[in-house]
Design a protein that fits this description.
Blueprint lengths: L2 H12 L2 H7 L2 H13 L4 H5 L8 E4 L3 H6 L10 E4 L1 H12 L7 E6 L2 E6 L1
Antiparallel strand pairs: 1-2, 3-4
Length: about 120
């Protein structure tokens, strides 16, 4: 099994029943396909000056964070097109606790205070 397939297998094992149901839904398939058509490049590679085709759509912040906030995980405002290596890096950071997607940034003058949720 190649490295990417092993990584996706590990991620699949970590998914809840709700995660699996959402990501296998017709609504998600249509929303993510539409997003990839309109945003075909990996946004993180693009920021780094590279041109790389996106292979999937990622939630930022995490889908569960969105749902806890009462926001729709089908809202394209929270979608990011990513290539597989960037997606794997994102997920590794989330799982290691380096993710700030569930934080609230409060700007006071020039100072930014970050409160983790």
């Amino acid at each position: 099994m190649n490295k990417n397939r092993e990584r996706f297998s590990q991620l699949d094992r970590n998914k809840t029943i709700e995660d699996r149901a959402f990501y296998s839904s017709t609504a998600w398939a249509q929303a993510s396909k539409h997003h990839r058509i309109n945003n075909p490049l990996c946004i993180q590679c693009k920021r780094a000056g590279r041109i790389t085709a996106a292979t999937l759509v990622h939630h930022n912040p995490d889908r569960r964070v969105l749902m806890a906030r009462g926001e729709s995980p089908l809202d394209p405002a929270y979608f990011e097109s990513l290539c597989t290596p960037c997606h794997n890096r994102e997920l590794s950071q989330r799982q290691s606790g380096c993710d700030n997607s569930n934080s609230i940034d409060i700007v006071l003058g020039n100072q930014i205070n970050v409160f983790k949720g």
